[in-house]
Amino acid sequence: MKEIDWLEDKAIKESKRQLVYECVKSIVRNEELKRAEEKKIFKDGKRKIQYDHADVNVMTVDEQIIYASIGKDTDKFIKARQEVIDLQEECKNCIPINQIRKLSMTDRIHLTCLAYVKYSNCLFSESIFDPKQGGADLTNLIYDYNFNSSVKILKNDLRPILNRLFGSDGDYFYGVGIKKSDIPAIQYLRCFLTKFNVCFDANKNYKRKEVTWNNYKYRTKAEMNIQRKAFTEFLAVILNNVSEDSIRKPKDYYTQKVIRQIGILDLIVRCNIFKCMHEGHEIQNITAIVKVLLEDGREEDVQISAGYCRQCNVYFIMESTYRELKRKGIILCRVTDSKTYAKGGFMNGSKLAQESILMQYGYNVSQTVGLSERQRQKILAVMIDNKVLSKSEIISYLDFFIRQHGSRNNMGIAISKWEDDREFVEHYRSGEYTKFGVNAIYRR
């Protein structure tokens, strides 16, 4: 399954960021499920098993029956079937895709573009080219392109199309008023338009021996998927590069005081100076909420002062703020030092190297750190509930730690803790603990 971590879109309404994440996740997971169900090994195997054993459930039937039907392809089929089962479970926990389809055109355009960045099989539906359903009418644009019109004319053709698609305010996204400068270089525009070839319709009247020509068409069934992909990618590029002043935000957006709830995708850098790794990025002073796990097992929302880089979607906190959070309890977020941040260990909120992800979320068996069994297992439960890692992924990490240090005599206590935690994860049922917002903090 594709990783859904950071989301970058300047038009997101901050109060809706978590819902945007959930919608994008649903779009990606449903498309992954569709693709998994269409895999040849799964479709052919399912058809053969159903033909041979009409009374069995293909999704639960045991290996012997599968082998009797498809022989040497059994292992491949079981792997493909498990992928389908896992994705079906994922989709059950996602926002229903039909609910997303009922959102405004503005919201659907942004969500699909964000999903496309994560998984390139997520494309606009065919209705994107149907003006009657709120879609785009590219007729004039493609006509002018095919008859060698100037760049100025092409951009003038394109702007009203884009404003129709996402110029209005949505529930999750602000409207975007596209300027000519927001439209990619002409080479990219032409590359996009080459996917739409002019094809005139000819009506032949054999009785009268005459031919009349109707308006040309720029779409054929065979090319539809190519055109959908080209248009999705084109809009994703535009929305990713749109200028800040093209976003139609309320006039008081930059002056009003907003308390931001740092969510599962957000990153915080622990530092002495609020400075983004990218030169020239402006850092805003904000108020934010971070969740902390107290000694008695309760979670507490702690209000902190922080810095925020809008371009990178990265938060910053002072060293003193970090120490105060640590005194309260376990910070329910990922923690690493600023060396990783400075080296570019992440970009725009993407995940850090996986080898230390358990420690980044505060998990540690060191006697010096002194986490209790309850605290360690609470951290693991939070990671599972928030889908930071799956149970099998955590077990793989713990198995790796046990194998790596198994021959060292001084690691007996640590190995015992890893084994206890492995057993806990094996028997843990998702949702047994209250879900916490799992964030990410960088420290220096």
Question: Can you characterise this structure?
Answer:
The chain is of the alpha/beta class. It folds into 3 domains: 89 residues; 121 residues, no CATH class; 185 residues, no CATH class. Helix content is 44%, strand content 12%. It contains 16 helices and 10 strands. Strands 3, 4, 5, 6, 7, 8, 9 and 10 form an 8-stranded mixed β-sheet that branches. Strands 1-2 form a two-stranded antiparallel ribbon. The protein is flat, with a radius of gyration of 27 Å. It starts with 16 loop residues before the first helix and ends with a strand.
How would the blueprint of this fold be written?
Layout: H1 17-38, H2 40-52, H3 63-70, H4 74-92, H5 97-101, H6 105-118, H7 139-146, H8 151-166, H9 186-193, E1 202-205, E2 210-213, H10 224-241, E3 259-261, E4 267-271, E5 283-293, E6 299-309, E7 314-318, H11 319-328, E8 330-331, E9 333-337, H12 338-342, H13 357-360, H14 373-385, H15 391-405, H16 412-427, E10 439-443
Parallel strand pairs: 3-5, 4-7, 4-10, 9-10
Antiparallel strand pairs: 1-2, 5-6, 5-8, 6-7
